Task: inverse folding
């Protein structure tokens, strides 16, 4: 594969002058200072070359005086056009990469796509590649009509994922958007395949909104959200499939879909409990939350999808609540604690995000007993929407990161029940049939 395409053009042999502290304040909110790297390990790359890529080809940094280095973009994530514009407006013309990393940068960036998103008898929207060793080889040309024979070959080679060029991601997303209704209504397509296509579409939409929250991207995401909610409400298998997929996939987008789906499932369960349960105390408390209204359900789902948007802005998707969380550097923990506010600030003026969903983004790390952050709010001051998303969020961390089974997650949450709304915890218990005595 041809290497160094970007830097053959964009690398500067002479380092530019490092920026100063005043300039940095204009450029980055919450700068994350790197340790263990020196200016001499870095090489300058012209921003004009970075703009030609859709994904960050490697970690990219700003240099400051006294050997300080600030990370601006993480490798592999879509390039945030807004942040790049801000740098250019402030006359920053270079970012820096580690010399060692530049040597291994491929000329193209490929993103994995699921085979189930290839639809039989339909023309594909872009080139599809397969991976052979370290190389990506062309498998299907743009416009190829997908036939059974293609699936047979892929099955024979036990190929699980294909790849597309990152420049084709928008085309691929439009293809999924155009196909999704027909796929979900097609009785020949299995629940597994329907869920996979839906899941991939939602992941793409979220990636676009998290990196570029413009009207077009928000509208596409909300449209996909409606389709996904309709699909989940219709079919219990769909709920299980989407939760399964969110557990299998790594990353912030899968986590967000998992949280939204679980929170939505809790709301649906409330409807069932209302009809069957004799537990009057729980019912009475939850009846104030009009969970049968579409508006409420939409806010719950949207709040789940967007709650962690701040992590992407801070490039901190890798950090999350876990037993080892406190072992992270204090500066990383402090920065992490700003993600609810950073996410809220990013979306507060975006069109089409209701105030209650914005509130979820801002409050989702608060806990009923006051031990959360950033403001240590207690239950009376945390919205019921947030309490629901917080519960789903922590369940998802246990389910995905610690690989616990559903009932085990509920039991773990019950050990810290003061942190959560006990009535919502009760609904979760019912959903997973947790034995009462445990
Ligand atoms: Fe969070
Ligand atoms: Fe989260």
Result:
């Amino acid at each position: 594969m041809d290497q160094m395409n970007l830097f053959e053009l964009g690398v500067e042999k002479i380092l530019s002058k490092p920026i100063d502290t005043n300039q940095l304040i204009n450029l980055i909110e919450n700068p994350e200072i790197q340790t263990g790297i020196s200016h001499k390990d870095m090489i300058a790359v012209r921003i004009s070359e970075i703009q030609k890529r859709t994904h960050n080809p490697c970690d990219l940094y700003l240099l400051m005086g006294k050997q300080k280095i600030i990370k601006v973009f993480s490798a592999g994530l879509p390039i945030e056009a807004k942040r790049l514009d801000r740098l250019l407006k402030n006359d920053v013309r270079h970012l820096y990469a580690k010399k060692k990393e530049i040597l291994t940068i491929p000329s193209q960036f490929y993103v994995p796509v699921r085979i189930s998103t290839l639809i039989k008898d339909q023309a594909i929207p872009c080139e599809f590649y397969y991976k052979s060793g370290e190389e990506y080889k062309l498998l299907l040309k743009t416009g190829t009509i997908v036939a059974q024979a293609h699936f047979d070959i892929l099955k024979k080679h036990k190929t699980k994922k294909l790849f597309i060029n990152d420049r084709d991601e928008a085309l691929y997303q439009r293809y999924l958007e155009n196909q999704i209704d027909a796929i979900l209504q097609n009785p020949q397509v299995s629940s597994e395949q329907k869920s996979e296509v839906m899941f991939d579409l939602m992941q793409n939409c979220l990636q676009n909104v998290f990196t570029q929250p413009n009207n077009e991207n928000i509208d596409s995401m909300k449209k996909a959200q409606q389709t996904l909610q309709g699909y989940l409400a219709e079919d219990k298998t769909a709920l299980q499939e989407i939760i399964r997929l969110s557990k299998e996939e790594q990353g912030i987008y899968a986590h967000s879909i998992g949280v939204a789906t679980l929170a939505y499932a809790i709301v649906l369960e409330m409807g069932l409990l209302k009809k069957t349960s004799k537990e009057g105390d729980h019912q009475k408390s939850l009846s104030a939350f009009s969970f049968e209204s579409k508006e409420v359900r939409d806010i719950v789902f949207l709040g789940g999808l967007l709650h962690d948007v701040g992590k992407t802005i801070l490039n901190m998707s890798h950090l999350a609540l876990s037993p080892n969380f406190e072992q992270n550097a204090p500066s990383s923990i402090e920065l992490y604690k700003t993600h609810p506010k950073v996410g809220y600030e990013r979306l507060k003026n975006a069109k089409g995000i209701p105030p209650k969903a914005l509130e979820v983004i801002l409050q989702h790390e608060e806990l009923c007993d006051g031990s959360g952050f950033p403001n240590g709010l207690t239950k009376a001051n945390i919205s019921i929407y947030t309490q629901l998303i917080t519960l789903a969020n922590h369940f998802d961390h246990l389910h995905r990161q610690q690989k616990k089974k559903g009932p085990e997650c509920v039991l773990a949450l019950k050990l810290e029940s003061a942190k959560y709304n006990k009535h919502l915890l009760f609904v979760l218990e019912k959903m997973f049939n947790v034995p009462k005595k445990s």
